[in-house]
Design a protein that fits this description.
There is one protein chain. Helices cover 28% and strands 29% of the residues. The radius of gyration is 23 Å and the shape is elongated. Strands 2-3-1-4-8-7-5-6 form an eight-stranded mixed β-sheet. β5, α3 and β6 form a beta-alpha-beta unit. The chain is built from nine helices and 17 strands. It has two domains: 163 residues, VC0802-like (2-Layer Sandwich); 198 residues, Vaccinia Virus protein VP39 (Rossmann fold, 3-Layer(aba) Sandwich), CATH 3.40.50.150. α2 packs across α3 and α4 crosses α5. The structure holds S-adenosylmethionine (SAM). S-adenosylmethionine (SAM) binds next to α5.
């Protein structure tokens, strides 16, 4: 067993933590953007598809940032000595990173130098190009400047250190952005967001047997599912979208079932199944065939999903009013044209329990609420 620290991308710390919880289960929060977890080496592969994970370290320790130079020297000694005990191979580099809001007076370089001296004074060679050991020191400040709402407020400065895990590498999303794919429409979901929605539909110890997207559009979600070797069941009412999704999958050397179908009758298409994650961004405004019907279509899909797999999970992204980003009270937020408190009751009546409601800024004037529903008990 290893205790690892996982560092999230800066984009949305709350969702990063939710993604880690969905993938792993109970995590400990060290900082809004850093969580820790005890993991077997063979389990590290569970992290490979994560959308918002930036770095994985074997955790050395963490402490509040020491103010005095003496305490800083002592911390640098502790970090260097811990690292030597845990080295594999015979050379090293020290990398520091700063995250969050930090006073200008904090020099990460000076930490790097001091820890480096502790280690090299033990006769271990510095190798900045391809070190067999990378000591990572993260100086992490407050999250006051975050652009997204954050239930976990943090106003201190802390230091977290560890050794970079070599058998994990960050997922690359480059080369398949919507505009790079052969079939593009402005409705296309970014690969990272599609991947995040799939991750959030995970429940530890539940295997996803199929990702069902009844509004597949250009195939953003189906692509991220099949790239993780998860079966995708995609459909859309627009035959151009159906062909477009197939074209985009083919371009990646992949394929999946894609049908022309009305989502409000989804169970007639897929029947009863186990292990389903219903992952989708529903039509709204111009992408809806009749915009007044958007809410009805969404609710009918929630009912259909229950018929297909009553034990499944729904992970979706719904249009929300701009107040979602700064409202202290979720009840008043307008989601799909309705007060969230009212929509929530309807969702619960259908038999879903809202496990996560989290607003996301898509761009300047566009806000979405990520909503994850688990079966009601
Ligand atoms: C927001 S887009 C989905 C975009 C998609 N996630 C992507 O990455 O391209 C919504 C899709 O719902 C489809 N749609 C609208 N009404 C529908 C219905 N009743 N049944 C099935 N699909 C429908 C539209 O054709 C559109 O492709």
């Amino acid at each position: 067993m290893l205790t690892v620290a996982m560092v999230g991308m800066g984009w949305h710390s709350w969702l990063f933590r939710e993604e880690m919880k969905a993938l792993l289960g109970d995590i400990s929060i060290l900082h809004p953007r850093i969580v820790s977890y005890d993991i077997g080496r063979e389990e590290i592969s569970k992290l490979s598809g994560a959308a918002l994970l930036d770095e994985v370290l074997i955790l050395g320790g963490h402490s509040m940032f020491p103010e005095s130079p003496e305490l800083q020297n002592s911390l640098c000694r502790t970090i260097g000595e811990w690292a030597i005990q845990n080295f594999e191979g015979d050379d090293f580099a020290v990398r520091t990173r700063k995250i969050g809001e930090l006073p200008d007076t904090i020099s990460s370089r000076s930490f790097e130098d001091r820890v480096g001296r502790v280690v090299s004074s033990n006769g271990i060679r510095v190798n900045l190009e391809s070190p067999s050991n990378e000591i990572v020191i993260i100086i992490a400040g407050s999250n006051d400047g975050d652009t997204h709402p954050e239930p976990f407020e943090f106003g201190e400065t802390m230091v977290v250190w560890g050794l970079r895990v070599k058998d994990w590498s960050k997922e690359s999303f480059s080369g398949r952005s919507p505009t790079e794919r052969p079939y593009f429409k402005p409705i296309s979901l970014e690969p990272r967001q599609a991947r995040l929605l799939i991750s959030l539909s995970r429940v530890p110890d539940r295997e996803i047997k199929a990702v069902v997207d009844p509004f597949c559009g250009t195939g953003g979600i189906a692509i991220e599912a099949v790239l993780q070797d998860i079966r995708a069941l995609a459909s859309d009412l627009d035959s151009r979208m159906v062909e477009g999704t197939k074209e985009n999958l083919k371009w990646l050397g992949k394929e999946c079932v894609v049908k022309k179908w009305d989502a409000s009758d989804l169970s007639a298409l897929w029947g009863e199944r186990e292990g389903c994650s219903f992952v989708f961004d529903p039509p709204y405004g111009r992408s809806s065939w009749r915009s007044a019907d958007s809410l009805d279509i969404f609710l009918s899909v929630l009912k259909e999903a229950k018929k297909i797999d009553a034990e499944g999970v729904v992970s979706t992204m719904l249009p929300a009013g701009p107040e979602a980003l700064n409202s202290g009270n979720n009840d008043d937020i307008i989601v799909m044209g309705k007060k969230w408190s009212e929509l929530l009751s309807i969702i619960q009546e259908i038999g879903w329990n809202v496990h996560l409601f989290c607003p996301v800024r898509v761009h300047r004037s566009l806000v979405r609420a990520i909503v994850v529903c688990h079966p009601a008990d």
